[in-house]
């Protein structure tokens, strides 16, 4: 652990009380100069640290940033976030993570940024990613068949939706998932998931799981074509949310689901996904590259495909597309 991070963790443990430089240096077996240098570089990163003669140092305020040292403090995962790459700005965390993964980055590597200038959404769309959001990607190396890879998207949807549900008051409206993996609050999109994979016929090389949460952003700043369908967590909660705590919790939930998947325990995730999914039971129109199809969304299969039943009762599974819920039933 870098010196500044060990100094930071000690200051955090003191919960805003003073601790002397001598105490820090003996606890870390570091010289007083090294401790002072650690404090100096923390201040340069934006930490407000008070220094008082005879009392020592006191952490007054941490910057509102997704810094690796903030994420790591209290992170209880074993794999996700073992290695963290942090940017103030990057084109796309998915692209950066993919580059790292193709050069051998280890499982769990996390790429996180304050903003993206070329954020990517599903189906080749752009993803608006201003400061205040939580934009990140993780590198996974699952020992599963490429056919099972969509399960990772499903478990990520459940992890994100459950964490968002926990931080949002019931008065903000229902938290749910719109197939395939839009997380909604009161039918407006608060988070999205983009899973990209490098695989051979029978083997996954790596998966980049990209997640974007509209945390402390203003939905009115979104491009006008996106604005009506978008909401941020701060708008739903009524105040700014703790982005670092939310990211840590999402990582922990993701890891639980992911390790479960590797052990062959996917049933509970699918059950939870079905509970959260707002699309099931509705008549929908799905716009796909090959055209449109209309049907009743009756279920999701274990690969994440949406099972549609048309008016004649014929079922069809759809794997990618955009869903619109129809108000009027096709036969009414
Ligand atoms: C969607 O709903 O269309 C998926 C959006 C995924 C956005 C995230 S933000 C972090 C990661 N990097 C990207 O470029 N995209 C994903």
Structure description:
With 332 residues, the protein is an alpha+beta fold. It has 9 helices and 14 strands. The strands form 3 sheets. A 7-stranded mixed β-sheet has the order 3-4-5-9-8-7-6, sandwiched between helices. Strands 13-12-11-10-14 form a 5-stranded antiparallel β-sheet, with no helix packed on it. Strands 1-2 form a two-stranded antiparallel sheet. β6 and β7 (182-185) form a beta hairpin. α1 (3-13) crosses α3 (32-45), α2 crosses α3 (32-45) and α6 (150-167) packs antiparallel against α8 (243-262). The longest helix has 20 residues, at 243-262. The mean pLDDT is 94. Bound molecules: biotin. Residues 92-94, 116, 119-122, 125, 127, 129, 135-137, 182, 192-194, 210-212 line the site of biotin. Residues 92-94, 116, 119-122, 125, 127, 129, 135-137, 182, 192-194, 210-212 line the site of biotin (BTN).
Topology:
Elements lengths: L2 H11 L7 H8 L3 H14 L2 E5 L3 E6 L6 H5 L11 E7 L2 H10 L7 E7 L17 E7 L9 H18 L7 E4 L3 E4 L2 E13 L2 E11 L19 H5 L5 H20 L4 H10 L6 E6 L2 E10 L5 E4 L5 E4 L3 E4 L7
Parallel strand pairs: 3-4
Antiparallel strand pairs: 1-2, 4-5, 5-9, 6-7, 7-8, 8-9, 10-11, 10-14, 11-12, 12-13
Helix pairs in contact: 1-3, 2-3, 6-8, 6-9
The structure holds biotin (BTN).
């Amino acid at each position: 652990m870098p010196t500044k991070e060990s100094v930071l963790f000690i200051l955090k443990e003191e919960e805003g009380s003073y601790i002397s430089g001598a105490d820090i240096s003996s606890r870390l077996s570091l010289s007083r100069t090294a401790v002072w240098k650690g404090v100096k570089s923390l201040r340069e990163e934006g930490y407000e640290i008070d220094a008082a003669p005879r009392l020592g140092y006191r952490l007054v305020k941490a910057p509102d940033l997704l810094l690796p040292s903030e994420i790591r403090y209290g992170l209880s995962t074993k794999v996700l976030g073992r290695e963290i790459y942090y940017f103030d700005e990057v084109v796309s965390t998915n692209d950066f993570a993919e580059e790292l993964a193709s050069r051998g980055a280890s499982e769990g590597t996390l790429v996180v940024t304050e903003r993206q200038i070329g954020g990517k959404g599903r189906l080749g769309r752009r993803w608006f990613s201003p400061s205040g959001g939580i934009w990140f990607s993780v590198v996974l190396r699952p020992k599963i068949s490429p056919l099972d890879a969509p399960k990772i998207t499903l478990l990520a949807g459940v992890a994100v939706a459950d964490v968002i549900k926990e931080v949002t008051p019931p008065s903000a409206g229902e938290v749910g998932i719109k197939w395939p993996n839009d997380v909604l609050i009161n039918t407006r999109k608060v988070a999205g998931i983009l899973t990209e994979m490098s695989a051979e016929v029978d083997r996954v090389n790596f998966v980049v799981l990209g997640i974007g949460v509209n945390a402390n952003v203003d939905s009115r700043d979104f491009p006008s074509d996106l604005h009506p369908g978008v909401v941020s967590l701060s708008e739903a909660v009524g105040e700014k949310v703790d982005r670092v705590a939310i990211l840590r919790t999402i990582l922990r939930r993701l890891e639980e689901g992911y390790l479960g998947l590797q052990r062959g325990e996917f049933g509970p995730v699918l059950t939870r996904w079905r509970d959260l999914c707002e699309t099931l039971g509705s008549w929908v129109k799905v716009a796909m590259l090959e055209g449109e199809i209309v049907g009743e969304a009756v279920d999701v299969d274990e690969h994440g495909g949406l099972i549609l039943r048309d008016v004649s009762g014929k079922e069809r599974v759809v794997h990618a597309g955009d869903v619109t819920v129809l108000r009027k039933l096709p036969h009414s």
